Amino acid sequence: MTSRVSYSIVVPTTGRPSLRMLLDALLGRLGGPDAPAPEAIVIVDDRPRPGAPLPLPPSVDGTGDLVRVIRSGGRGPAAARNAGWRTTTTEWVVFLDDDVVLSPGWARDLAADLETTASEAGGCQGIVTVPLPASRAATDWERNTAGLESALWITADMAYRRDVLAECGGFDERFQHAYREDADLALRVMDNDHRLVRGTRRVTHPVRPAGFWVSVRAQAGNADDVLMRRLHGRGWRERAGEGSGRFPRHVATTGAGLLAVAAFAAGARRTALAAGAAWAGLSAEFVAARIPRIWDRAPAELSERCRTDLLEGLGGRFRATRLGAPWPGEVVKMLVTSLVIPPAAVLYRLRGLVEHRGAGPWPSRQVVLFDRDDTLIRDVPYNGDPTTVEPMPGAAEALERLRRQGVRIGVVSNQSGVAKGYITADDVRRVNARVEELVGPIDVWEICPHDRDDDCDCRKPLPALVERAAGRLGVLPSDCVVIGDIGGDVEAAVAAGARGILVPTGRTRLEEIAAASEVAPDLNSAVDLVLGDDRGGRKRERVPAERGVR
């Protein structure tokens, strides 16, 4: 079959060797009418400080522009996926983990899935299989990974329509670990009345190597659970297909332990004894709940031996070595980590309460376009000297706030000094580079080098700069906010169908302030308007004209 839908593939990676095998499989199975090729394979390098080259196979060299590598700065899988899909233009975007193994017919089945669901769903999940050992009982980490088989909407293999991603603002980058960010997106997609379905394509997700403390480190997800509840309410677990969890028991266990220590230190021996007994009982229950699971996914012939040896071990004749490694070490690991997990879970939950206090919905408006001179940096007429660049007060902070919320940032600036011959285009680029050094990365620059009488369509207040910036970022002008210091900035926004916010300075005329629909006294207040509007219900700020003029 030949698919009538277009798709791109996005693979976030931290450079695991498995990336090479995945790319070899993708490139080796995309030929022929039964396996239509993607328009792009975007590899997102999410290492904070890339050193060694990514493990790309030699087959990438002959693909031309099909495979491209971008960097996301080590901001986590949600930010990496956003960076990837926003570079695409196809109808569908398929997200894959960098360590999955594709089934032989994956590309063909993917095309069939997308063809079948193109008109009826916003997303389509693949079938994930986690192989477990056949010769021994699975470890705790292996069993946890096996939970991916029944998990809903996980991005090990998940396809979304690109317009749905844009509508929802993509992944919430406040989820900085590979945990909950996929469930959060799925719930938002369904809240926007899009269906999510399961397809027929299959991938295998091997169990990654893990250390002794992996189950303790996994408790960091308790902080993300705070954000999930803030965003989706008390019933988020049921909607996301999650169980109730053990956190209330972890609180009780931790509380009993702390009370026992405090009472003992205060000399209240009876209270200490009672609290200590409660802690011991709750801890024993947790250990018991984990240890029997050691045979949950074991082969049938091994299960009875597990039970027998465990019972004999409790009777003083422990012979776990009959089961083969890593069973004895696994029991020790569960005994130790079961004592550490409850307080770790509580500490991470407290951290989440602090980090996500007052958290509002992830903004769907994803682009803010700034004027440059007297908005981001102080205006030096016809400036071609990077050493004279000085940020406006609060500029770096305001832009960083937007980045943390996943909002992309652009600059739209008139630079008529180029047409007048006072500066060159290279001078403008050098000044712009210095701006990024001082206020952080800018996703897109759009510059008008023309003079007032050049009859161009890009000099503000005309809309072309805004329209071009929006097009390069894959959004509509109506998805953009334009922030500037003069009426021409706001007029360009209105002409393009974007939202305009005026931040007046000494050169802003009173009539420009009066005409602007939204006015903020400074950049951070303008950012409050952007984020506050997306969070719903925060009043847009208006300031009297005299407050914005020096």
What does the main sheet amount to?
8 strands, mixed
Structural class: alpha/beta
Q: Give me the CATH fold name of the largest domain.
A: Spore Coat Polysaccharide Biosynthesis Protein SpsA, Chain A
The unreliable regions are 294-326, 533-550
Beta content: 5-15%
Rg on CA atoms, Å = 28 Å
Label the CATH architecture of the largest domain: Alpha-Beta Complex
- Name the helicity range: 40-55%
Strand order of the largest sheet: 3-2-1-4-7-6-8-5
Looking at CATH, the homologous superfamily of the largest domain is: Spore Coat Polysaccharide Biosynthesis Protein SpsA, Chain A
Instruction: Please work out how many helical segments DSSP would assign.
Output: 20
Shape: globular
